[in-house]
Amino acid sequence: YLDMPYMRAYEVASFYTMYNLAPVGRFHVQVCGTTPCMLRGSDDVMAACKNKGLNKGKTTPDGLFTLTEVECMGNCSNAPMVQINDDNYEDLDFDIMTGILEDLAADKKIKVGSQIGRQTSEPVGPSTSLDEMVNANHDYRKEW
């Protein structure tokens, strides 16, 4: 149809994780495995998936879940994170991920975004940098 070699299309389709070469389950669970997520516990998230019977690159026998490990999805400050279908779930650990998978299987509604209540990309806990900027009396023009 495109008058191009099959291999050229296959190279693109097999490189990008947004293209699936086979049907995926009802819930496509994409776990970020890059360094920021790994440092904050993506191995635990992956372990929770495995504990629930999900295997990388496979769809569960019931057709409910497909598990894929992907590269950075741009939510590094709220790591570790997963994308399930079109929604992101952030600030995960083993127990939270287990709960998400159980709720999806039970057809329950799940809170999207940070699972620990953070707004946008605010730090976990108190601020650890730029503390002086919160002081309204500080005149930064003097430093320039």
What does this 3D model show about the protein?
- The N and C termini lie far apart (62 Å).
- This protein has a 5-stranded mixed beta sheet with strand order 2-1-3-4-5, with helices on one face.
- The protein contains 4 helices and 5 strands, in the order H-E-H-H-E-E-E-H-E.
- The chain has helices at 6-15, 35-39, 42-51, 94-105; strands spanning 27-32, 65-70, 81-84, 87-90, 113-114.
- It has one domain: 3-Layer(aba) Sandwich (Glutaredoxin), CATH 3.40.30.10.
- Helix 3 packs parallel to helix 4 (94-105).
- The longest helix is centred in the last third of the chain and has 12 residues, at 94-105.
- The protein has 144 residues and is of the alpha/beta class.
- A hairpin with a 2-residue loop joins strand 3 and strand 4 (87-90).
- The mean pLDDT is 88.
Biggest beta sheet attributes = 5 strands, mixed
Based on secondary structure, the structural category is alpha/beta
Element pattern in H and E: HEHHEEEHE
Say how many strands there are. 5
For this structure, the CATH topology is Glutaredoxin
What's the number of helices?
4
- Principal-axes geometry comes out as globular
**Which strand order do you get reading across the main beta sheet?**
2-1-3-4-5
State the CATH superfamily name: Glutaredoxin
CATH architecture identity? 3-Layer(aba) Sandwich
Sequence stretches where pLDDT stays below 50 over 5 or more residues? none
Instruction: Name the CATH class.
Output: Alpha Beta
Indicate the radius of gyration in whole angstroms.
Answer: 20 Å
Intertermini distance: 62 Å
**Helical coverage, percent range:** 25-40%
Mean pLDDT: 88
Strand content: 15-25%
